[in-house]
Amino acid sequence: MQIIDGKTVSEQLKAQFKQKIDLITKTGRAPGLAVIIVGEDAASKVYVANKIKDCEQIGMKSVHCRLKEDTTKEELIEAINCFNADPTIDGLIVQLPLPKHLDENEILSHIDVHKDVDGLSAYQTGRLALGIPELKPCTPSGVMELLKAYGISVAGKNAVIIGRSNIVGKPMAFMLLKDNATVTVCHSRTVNLTEITKAADILVVAIGRARFVTADMVKPGAVVIDVGMNRAEGKLCGDVDFEAVKEKVAYITPVPGGVGLMTRTMLMANTIKAYELYGK
Fold first, then answer.
1. Domain identity same for 156 and 87
2. What average pLDDT does range 27-49 have in this prediction?
3. Domain presence at residue 270
4. Active-site residue 118, yes or no?
5. Residue 43: what pLDDT?
């Protein structure tokens, strides 16, 4: 069994990004990322602070806009439009979740698709589905980078995804298909789930249920990618029962220290790509 170390891969990629930005800034401006956060969600505040640190580490411009909990739809859209129009901002994200009075899909639809570094707009999702991706969703992109870093080919493999969200499950399926895996997407209505997961060469779990995947659900020698982030007994854990499963598989990601770090790293990658495609 080998643990897939997201921290090491993340640091290696960020070192490459820093070298690229150092070259860029010799003759021009640094790529810029803007983050809008609405309200006082504690987890969102931590996540945004980490994004700011990532930007500082690689020399990327970082701007964050904090809005009050009772911010209206019109005020938030106005803030989005200001960043859309700013030529020094290449990537723009609105931190989720939003307060309940704001419709996430409606709000996100106002982000310039060429600055959509979360890769979740209909435009970016459509390009991904057609096999001509531009700015890909960060979490599944991070998964693919981890597989690449460890020399794990997905071509011809039986890949199973548990979870069908727009953020992870669906784009993960498109990315695995593009690299020639045979893909099955499972969800809450899937019948005989264990029979399906036991046949997986590569198992990606993203359902938000602590330690849901147990050893009896996993094929010996499989690659297990745990996208979950839960808190149980006061500790962070994934969607996979790590201690039980790790002895049975060839590769596995830990929580924390696995996919989560890569999500932030791929946000940096998308911002640099948006700069290269549409900025300068």
1. no
2. 90
3. no
4. yes
5. 78
Q: Which of 90, 112, 118, 226 is catalytic?
A: 118
Residue 220's CATH number: 3.40.50.720
First-to-last C-alpha distance (Å) of the chain:
45
pLDDT at 207 exceeding the cut of 70: yes
Which residue reads 């990658």 in tokens? Answer: 269
Q: For residue 87, give the CATH number of its domain.
A: 3.40.50.10860
Mark whether 251 and 190 lie in a shared domain.
yes
Work out the burial of residue 248: count CB atoms within 10 Å of its CB; fewer than 13 is exposed, 13-18 middle, 19 or more buried.
middle
The yes-or-no answer on residue 273 being catalytic is no
Map tokens 């990629």 to a residue: 13
Is 51 a catalytic site residue? yes
Tens-place pLDDT, residues 164-192: 999 999 999 999 999 999 999 999 999 99
pLDDT tens digits for range 218-269 = 999 999 999 999 988 888 899 999 999 999 999 999 999 999 999 999 999 9
Catalytic residue among 61, 95, 219, 273: 95
pTM: 0.94
Whether the CB-CB separation of 50 and 98 falls below 8 Å is answered with: no
